[in-house]
Amino acid sequence: MRAVICNSFNGIGALEFGEIADPVPGPGQVLVDVHAAAVSFMDTLIVSGRYQLKPVLPFVPGSDAAGIVLAVGEGVQRVRVGDRVACSHWYGGMAERMVTPEWGVTKLPDSVSFEIGSTVRYAYGTAHYALTRAQLQPGETVFVSGAAGGVGMAAVNLASQQGATVIAGTSSAAKGDAAREQGAAHTIDYSYEPVRSRLLELTEGRGVDVYFDNVGGALFSTVSRVMAWGGRILPIGFTGGEIPSLAMNLPLMKNYSVMGCYWGAWTERQPQESHLADEQLFAAVGQGTLRPQVSEVLPLPSFAEALQRLERREVMGRIVLRAKQGPDAPA
Questions:
Q1: What is the DSSP annotation of 126-139?
Q2: What is the pTM of this model?
Q3: How are beta strands 141-145 and 208-213 bridged, if at all?
Q4: What is the per-residue pLDDT across 314-324, written as a single tens digit (0 to 9) for each?
Q5: Which fold has domain 125-263?
């Protein structure tokens, strides 16, 4: 099969596109004929050796995909050959076929295309898990940094659907407009606006109830000082390149919490709860309640362009790689 191949942890430029042996599902695993694979910022970190997980070399990058089940291993009960599914694992998605554990596979509603389906599980799963951990309540204020990225847009979409007032933090006016289309009530362009004073202005001095942080770095340091009493900080990722530290007198004085939100590890530890959440999310996407955003669909051999655009922060929503040509359900 054709696949993107990572032979060393030397970044996007060292990746190759070529032929490798077809994967074979073992017990509890599912083999999927991949039609579409979504690209994530996590993929750029993994191929550079900068993620907390390092697969054994060589490997195929790509955490999210969608396609049709070709075969199932012993003990698999949730899906069968011929099912349309979305699937995800730590790696393996940027190929014509992918093997994933059964807990990483969810049936795709007929109304959801492979391209859209490939973007849901990681981005919306992460956002849903984090906001559930925070016990988000209607009427609370949520500040989402990196709000125009895949996970950020999912958080804006979900939080607004749950009745929260969402403030989207972005690095450009165009990205702010994209976040508004997903339900953000306000935007802050932190490329030039004073984040601290704007947040206090928009919350009438109360501060932020829930901080959904995709960026880290200096922005985290700023927002950690404008949290509301009893607030919750959700560290999701560090796309700014710097893992921040927190002065512990801040949560002490405001009685706020920092809540870890490592969705990938949670799905492995709590597969039943994860599967129920997946079913709810895909049903909402199928009904049009949630609106995953795909900015562009590129052919699989254009993987380097997609990953490089992510690294340069040029993407709004998700970029998808098409592994198969042919008819599909409507987006």
A1: HHHHHHHHTT--TT
A2: 0.94
A3: parallel
A4: 999 999 999 98
A5: Rossmann fold (3.40.50)
